[in-house]
Automatic annotation (TrEMBL):
This is PEGA domain-containing protein. PANTHER family: S-LAYER-LIKE PROTEIN. Keywords: Membrane, Transmembrane, Transmembrane helix. Residues 214-282, 284-351 form the PEGA domain. It comes from Candidatus Methanophagaceae archaeon ANME-1 ERB6. InterPro entries: CarboxyPept-like_regulatory, PEGA. The chain crosses the membrane at residues 188-209.
Length: 352
């Protein structure tokens, strides 16, 4: 007994290699074969099956399985198997895109990905609908989507895939913040009143601060004396010293030819302290003798008498003096007199 056969594509007639062929007789498996590169298969057996029924089952990936029943009328049976391509069941996914007012959105760009891999892209139609068919292998998996349209916020999300899945996406418009409206006349009046109040407060504070600041006015006779406040030089008299803190302070006046003037005064907050000083001339005396005596004495060009001579009321400082006597050389010198000092000058005149 011999079984011969071919396996071809029912639509194209192309031979199909690798098809699985199972042969049965009376529920008993006779043989399991595989079609060759030409789509042919062959089986021979010494058993006799005349009058028996042959059952042939053919399977191939991507095709609908087929079962053929043939009676053994002769020792040889020839089978021509034509397999019909299997229609792959797709997963249907539908997106319904609308704005917040439930208006359908046309032209929304949609991209889909599963586990980081892109599985589809598309654009919504005039009714805001986007449909796509996906591989059945994706059933039960989560698909991530991004929906993008100008003037709207990017919409992102995820959907669990079933055989038929429908999902609605609501997209929000991008809103621009409006600038604040200009204040009304009443608001302007309120603002002006607030500003005026602030200005008044500032002026009041300035007046208070001004009134609370202290000063010292210093004058001297004669004027032009150097003024020192707590050891710090402030200028010449007459002088007003401002910004003086309340409390005890020391004023010192100094002028060449006069005794220093020192005074400690108490300054009150916001008050003006006045100090007037009569400077006392710093004086000393000079006692002049000569050998021989009877010489004329002049001090700073002014005649003072004959030696021996005591000159009183001499101001402190440097002074020029001159002694002259007939038959003798003039004697000219300079001396320094301290306040309260009794200066002594002894001169020996030389003959001409």
């Amino acid at each position: 007994m011999r079984v011969l056969g071919t396996v071809k594509d029912a639509a194209t007639g192309v031979p199909l290699p690798g098809a699985k062929i199972s042969l049965y007789v009376r529920e008993d498996e006779l043989a399991v074969l595989q079609s060759d590169s030409k789509g042919e298969f062959r089986h021979e057996s010494e058993s006799q099956y005349l009058g028996e029924i042959l059952i042939c089952k053919v399977e191939k990936a991507g095709y609908e399985p087929q079962k053929v029943i043939q009676e053994f009328e002769e020792d040889e049976v020839t089978l021509a198997i034509k397999l019909v391509p299997r229609k792959e069941e797709k997963i249907g996914l539908t997106f319904n895109l609308k704005d917040e007012k439930r208006t359908p959105l046309k032209g929304v760009n949609i991209s889909l990905e599963v586990s980081g891999e892109e599985v589809g892209v598309g654009i919504s139609d005039k009714d805001g609908i986007f449909k796509i068919s996906l591989s059945p292998d994706l059933e039960g998996k989560t698909i991530n989507y991004d929906a993008e349209l100008g003037g709207f916020v990017l919409a992102s999300g995820a959907v669990l895939l079933k055989k038929e899945t429908s999902h609605e996406i609501t997209m929000k418009k991008i809103t621009m913040k409006k600038p604040p409206a200009p204040p009304s006349n009443r608001k302007w009046l309120i603002i002006a009143a607030v500003v005026a109040g602030i200005v008044i407060v500032i002026l009041a504070v300035m007046i208070i601060l001004s009134s609370s600041s202290s000063s010292i006015y210093v004058a001297s006779s004669p004027s032009g004396a150097s003024v020192y406040l707590d050891g710090s030089y402030e200028g010449k008299t007459p002088k007003t010293i401002t910004g003086v803190s309340a409390g005890s302070h020391t004023i010192k006046l100094s002028k060449s030819g006069y005794k220093d003037y020192t005074r400690t005064t108490s300054v009150k907050a916001g008050k003006r302290t006045i100090i007037k000083a009569n400077l006392r001339q710093a004086i000393g005396s000079i006692s002049v003798t000569s050998s021989p005596s009877g010489a004329s004495v002049s001090l700073d060009g002014s005649p003072k008498g004959m030696t021996p001579k005591t000159i009183t009321g001499v101001s402190a400082g440097y002074h020029n003096f001159k002694l002259s006597k007939s038959g003798y050389n003039n004697y000219v010198g300079t001396t320094y007199v301290k306040a309260g000092e009794k200066k002594r000058i002894d001169v020996i005149l030389t003959k001409r």
